[in-house]
Design a protein that fits this description.
7 helices, 7% strand, mainly alpha, two-stranded antiparallel ribbon, 2 strands, single chain, globular, Arc Repressor Mutant, subunit A
């Protein structure tokens, strides 16, 4: 039984990596890094005017990583930053060029995702989401006690 579980986990990991490779390949074909693709994708999800903090939370990425990519996009004329009404929080807005990039590059990927998901029968989609939530919750529980070496000293 344990051997079967190991094979199932290897198959799951293989499929997960295949999906990651697909998105990496898409990023390259679209002429952008994975982080820039992810940021533009996330801006589409969160909406124009979202904050850097929201992007970091959505992507589970460090502020430094996101900030570096955002600065690059800003220098390329894809987006600009504007101070929010409260505090120091900066809001990210797409320029006309950025909206064009999103229309041409990001929205077709989102549409492909929608189509791939819709091709699954409704019951399978619900089951896929239910099982994914169970797995993510289990991984959070199982990894909660793992700490980096510097945290232990």
């Amino acid at each position: 039984m344990e051997e079967n579980q190991g094979q199932e986990l290897r198959e799951f990991n293989r499929l997960y990596k295949k999906l990651e490779e697909l998105y990496h390949s898409l990023s390259l074909r679209l002429g952008m890094s994975d982080s820039i693709f992810s940021i533009l994708y996330t801006i589409c999800e969160l909406g124009d005017g979202c904050s850097q903090k929201e992007i970091c939370e959505q992507l589970s990425a460090s502020k430094q990583t996101i900030n570096s990519a955002i600065r690059k996009l800003e220098n390329q004329g894809i987006l600009f930053m504007r101070k929010g009404e409260k505090g120091r929080e900066l809001h990210i807005h797409l320029t006309e060029r950025g909206r064009c990039e999103v229309r041409e590059k990001i929205l077709p990927v989102m549409e492909a995702e929608d189509q791939a998901f819709i091709r699954m029968p409704e019951q399978d989609r619900a089951e896929f989401l239910r099982l994914s939530r169970i797995y993510v919750d289990a991984m959070i529980r199982e990894t909660s006690s793992i700490r980096a070496l510097e945290e232990r000293t």
